[in-house]
Amino acid sequence: NRRISLASRPVGAPISANFSLEETAIPTPASGELLLRTSYLSLDPYMRGRMNDGASYAEPVAINDTMVGATVCQVVTSLHPDYQAGEWVLAYTGWQDYGISDGEGLIKLGAEPTNPSYALGILGMPGFTAYMGLLDIGQPKSGDTLVVAAATGPVGATVGQIGKIKGCYVVGVAGGAEKCQYAVDVLGFDKCIDHKADDFDAQLKAACPKGIDVYFENVGGKVFDSVLPLLNTGARVPVCGLVSQYNATELPSGPDRLSLLMGTLLVKRIKMQGFIIFDDYAPRYNEFFVDMMDWLQAGKIKYREHMIDGLENAPAAFTGMLQGENFGKLVIKVA
Ligand code: NDP
Question: Quick one: 134 and 271 in the same domain?
Answer without folding.
Answer: yes
